[in-house]
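Meet the record:
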Amino acid sequence: MIEINLLPEELRNKVVKLKKPEATITAAGLEPKHFILLIPLAFGILIGLQLIIGLLGLTKSVQARMLDGKWSSLEPERKALKEFNDKYNLVSEDTQIIQQLMRTRVNWSEKLNSLSLNLPAGVWFEEILVNSKELALQGAVVSLNKEELSLIKQLIDNLKNDPAFFRDFNYLEMGSAKKKAFGSYDITEFTLNASLKAK
């Protein structure tokens, strides 16, 4: 490269003295001394990130320890709650069993009351037998008009038409009837059979 300087001689020397040597340009457009300054800056950033991550981890660890301490302090309450739930479940199961039994049980006092209310004049019971499958009634009837069988039929119809009595039975029918002398009267002894509904 040829440089032509048109300045007078005395000024030429001054210009040459002021002229700086050319700077080395890198691929990033920076001089090597700037790279040296970037290295500590990069290490500083990395160390700062490590410190932040470490502090976050330490904070989470402290929080986890605090929560673990609270969880441990609640152990008696959790045990008490578990015992309560276990007892409640047992009581609830017992209640369900009792309710099931109440739904499937036969209210015999109601049945006996219905037998008494539906009994025609001249009819009485001598024996009532009950088991898990059936009800057996033994009774007798006396009628001055000789209407014993119609009184027994009236009793059966009354009981069948009484929902409080008949709802737990499949059927109600006369089993047997036989006449018997009782003093100067003729009485008819009879049996009634009723089958209980399966529950």
